[in-house]
Amino acid sequence: MAFTELNAQIQELTLATHQSYYLNTSSGFICQEERDNNTKLSILSLDHRAHGVPDPLLSFLREKNIRIILYSSTGLLLCLGNSEDMLYICNPVTNKLNRIPDPGVFGVSANKSAMVLGFEPSADNLEANYEIVSAVKFPDEPVLRFEIYSSINETWRESKGILPLDEHQASNLSFTGNKFYLKDIAYWETSNKRVVAFHMDSEEAQFIDLWMETGEDGVFGQINGEICYLCIFPVNLSETQQYMIRIYNLAQMELQHEIRFKPDEKLRRSPWILPGFDGKIVMIHAGLSIYSCSLVGDDATVEFKWLVDVPMELDFGNRRRYFKYVNTRSPILT
Prior knowledge:
Blueprint: H1 3-22, E1 28-35, E2 38-45, H2 59-63, E3 66-73, E4 76-81, E5 87-91, E6 96-100, E7 115-118, E8 131-137, E9 143-150, E10 155-164, H3 167-172, E11 175-182, E12 185-190, E13 194-199, E14 205-209, E15 218-223, E16 226-237, E17 240-249, E18 254-261, E19 272-273, E20 281-286, E21 289-296, E22 301-309, E23 322-325
């Protein structure tokens, strides 16, 4: 390969990495609809000038028989093919798709709902390396087990770490589908209002109690670089209906913000919080629109701003069908 060609490739790789590292705010949401065994995908951009995806309907995924998105991490998607055991990593900006080897220990079907993709761009991660971690619970074992995939060596392995379960947990624990990855730690919300945290470096797992009133639906986010949990629920005060937004810092085990607001006619229509909280802006889905809720000052006063209307065909009414999307040109190396 000529020196000039090699130098151009290095510069392009470096530029893509720096773009992913510095421009990592939310570009919008990937909407996923499942009806009658068919899946429809599209990107709902918050800024049509900047979403960067050449095919907002993601038709190339359908052409490759991609059936469902399992997780989104800094612009890369973890996807499931038509076959239950076919995993892919996808970058919708570059239309690049990479087949992931079959898990050799537990298999995809045992843990597909609890798979988390960990991709955190940095100036040192020029090759866009990533990891996948799965939490697995078997009916006849009172423990949670974990399986890890590394893009560096392209192999799966069983983690040395396990999480013991008591008798009640062993019988009733399941994953809600709410999951998150932050600073080499994977998080899963479980059905018993506890969070499983798995540390990738030490391969240690622990429970974090959701000790607070959370309502039915909550999402993970980050605040000042620490894991947090957000929820919204109605509060009835005499004849006036209000809503409460609570933001809990799980790392510090404390309530960070508590916000009451009286919704207008549009915001009154079943509001719920979308994924992607960055410590400053909460995205709220209400009716057929998405609003931003800015946390301003120490008193966390609320300012609502309309962002975009959701097309009726994309109004799925379930937060788990929305994935935070970040525009990235990070390469996927095969």
